[in-house]
Structures are given as C-alpha cells and as structure tokens.
Amino acid sequence: MERYLKDTLVEDLAEKMVFLGGPRQVGKTTLALSLLAGGSENHTAYLNWDNPASRRMLLQGALPGGERLIILDEIHKYKGWRNLVKGFYDTNKSSRQFLITGSARLDHYRRGGDSLQGRYHYHRLHPLSLYEITRRPTRADLDHLMQYGGFPEPFIKGQARHWKRWQREHQSRIIHEDLISLEHVKEVSQLDLLAQTLPERVGSILSVNNLRQDLSIAFETADHWITILENLYFCFRIQPYGLPRLRAAAKERKVYMWDWSVCENPSARFENLVASNLLKYCHRIEDRDGDRMELRFVRDSQGRELDFVVVRNGKPDFAVECKTGERLLSRNISYFSHRADIPKYYQVHLGSKDYEIADGKARVLPFTAMAGILAV
Q1: Among residues 200, 257, 203, which one has the least CA distance to residue 233?
Q2: Rg (Cα) of the chain, in Å, rounded?
C-alpha cells in the first residue's frame, strides 16, 4: 500500500533535504525506496550506515554517480553525521536530493558541528491507521488494527503467533541495538524492565515516583529513561492543558505506546489507539503545514478529565473522549462544554451510534467515523 507521506516527501525534496523519522519497522525504508526506480535495497542510491560498504563510501565523502535522489539510512548512528550530511548537501544541493531516515528522533540526536537549521524539512512516519488502510473502514478493520497494531509487518501478516514473536523481537532491538548505539546507559536490564511496565500505565496518570520505587532508581533517572524511550519512538507522553478560569492539573502527564497492541487491557488499548491517531493527525499538520500542534489532556483539581484535546497554535481545536461502549454523553464533556473554550467535543466508541448533541458542541460517534474526520 502507498503510505500517506509519499506525495509530501516528493514535494519537499524539491526544496531541501528531508529527514524522515519514526519507530523501528514502521515502514520508513520501504517508503524511501518507493521513491527510487525499482524500489530495491540493492539500489546504488540507497546507502545504509549499517552496511560496511555504504559506510566506507560515506566516510570517504563519496556518493554514487548519476543518481538524483540519495537515501541515507540510519546515519544518525555516526557521531559526526550532522557535519557529514551538511557537507554533502552544501556541495551537491543543485544537482542532488537527500532523504535521511532513522529510527530515532533525527531532530534530537545531533552531536557537534554546525547547525543544519534551514537545510531540511522533518517528517514523522506513524503506524498504519484506519483511514490509511481504507477510506470506508468497518468494525472488522478496526478490530484487526487493535489486535495486531499499526506496524505493517504484523498487521499484514495477521497471525497471533507471528505478532507475539515480532513484539518481543521489536522491543529487544530497540533496547539492545538502537539504545546502546545512541545512549550511554549501563543499566540496560532495568531500562528493559521499564519498557515492559509502561503499557500497564497507559490511560492513567503516570507516576514517575512509583516507577522510581519499583525500579529502585532515582526520580531523575526514571524520568530520563522515559525520555530516552520517547526519543526512540517507543512511547510518548502528553501534558495537561491549562484551561482559563479552571483549576487544572499542571504537572501530571500520561504515557502511551507507539505500538498500542502491547496494551493487554482492552479499554487502555482502545484509548492508546485513539491517542496514536490523534498524534498522527497533529504531526501530519505540523510537519506539512507548519502549524504548532499539541496533543494534550484536561484534568481539573477535582479529577474531572477529558482524555484528549488537540491544540493548534496555542488554542484548543477539539476534545476527544474514549468509551468502549455506546453510552450517553460523558458527564465530563457536559461539564467542560459549559466552562471551557473548546469549540468541539467528540465522544468516540466501538459501537455504531452516531448523533449530535442539541447544542451542537458535541458528537457521539463510532471511531470508524472519527477516522474520516482525522483523515490520516
């Protein structure tokens, strides 16, 4: 299937370099290769830092001849990658296009040298979503996506045995390959344990202090380790949104996984899937259009909460509540809709009912319909 970023990448490559980040095995290499004739990993224009021959060529300052588009994969693992890429671009930008991919935040892992600011566009590739799979999703499509996650390999395979094996290998490679190559962490086994416990905390307020106690480490260490896992696209945290005139929680955060299928609790898994789709929506607009997008949640001092609020350029765009069943409008939506300056509320569920509330600010709808509104 053709990924949602392909046309945007082609457009941006005509202007600058393009950095393509995202989780390991989310489809970055496949997407990049689709821009080359033949689309093969053996193409001369595809240079992977993990390949010794490609590494030697890059360190010698050489590029394959006669190729307009050059793909540099996983080059962020080289500590001097920033200067190397800058040199390639500055001396070849009139005749070459450069697409740099990596399974870590390329905007974070920059070590030494001059700035690349102004020389690249940055895009984040997300797992598959309902709208990307089909424009008319069914409940069966949603169930399949919830069970096997949005990473192409287990989703397409659609077999429980393959999915379980892929999950274990995926986490192991993130911790024992990507992390070790990018970070100076000695307690790898404890960080691996942290990664295993995070899915249990999806959907609730994340207590770093509890994690600190469970792992017998300092508070700062626990928080830093979570940040490392965020930079490796293993998980992401969202912050509360402070509403005017309301006493809102200011420091609490919630955590979600890039692979929602690791959540064993069905309600948490559904909430994580919704969070991932909303983050994909935010990143798509931010990377393509330049608006400053944020995914947050609302929680006041009395514990009343809205699962998500999408913020555009500092102002709330819409809020989303998740319910696995077809219920009446959430009391929290009723409460905040009369007190908060949020223009639209959506309550998404796994059923089929779809209706508007009389005052026009809220809509209760199946998530299959919400997928079309997000359109990513």
Answers
A1: 257
A2: 22
Kindly state whether residue 1 falls inside one of the protein's structural domains: no
Pairwise CA distance, residues 353 & 60, whole Å: 62
Domain that holds residue 248: 130-374
Strand segments (E) across the chain: 17-21, 46-48, 69-73, 97-102, 120-124, 205-206, 235-240, 253-257, 293-299, 305-312, 315-322, 345-349, 355-356, 362-366
What CATH code is carried by the domain that includes residue 23? 3.40.50.300
Segment 153-177, tens digit of pLDDT: 999 999 999 999 999 999 999 988 8
Q: Cα separation of 316 and 51, whole Å? A: 46
Report the C-alpha gap between 308 and 320 in whole angstroms. 5
Q: Look up residue 203 and give its two tokens.
A: 């959907």
Q: Which of 83, 102, 124 is the last residue of a domain?
A: 124
Determine the pLDDT at residue 273: 98
Verify that 167 and 268 share a domain, yes or no: yes
Average pLDDT estimate for 127-152: 96
Give the whole-angstrom CA distance, residue 180 versus residue 188: 8
CA–CA separation, 262 vs 276, rounded Å?
Answer: 13
Task: Return the DSSP state at 13.
Answer: H
Place of tokens 């296009």: 97
Residue (of 173, 104, 48) closest to 40 by Cα position: 48
Q: With both helix axes pointing from N to C terminus, report the angle between 188-197 and 208-215 in degrees, rounded to the nearest 10.
A: 130
Tell whether 106 and 197 lie within a shared domain.
Answer: no
Q: How many domains does the chain have?
A: 2
End of a domain among 98, 124, 150? 124
* Cβ pair 236, 258 in contact under 8 A: yes
Residue 345, pLDDT score: 97
Q: Are residues 211 and 225 in the same domain?
A: yes
Would you say residue 28 lies in a domain?
A: yes
- Identity of residue 13: L
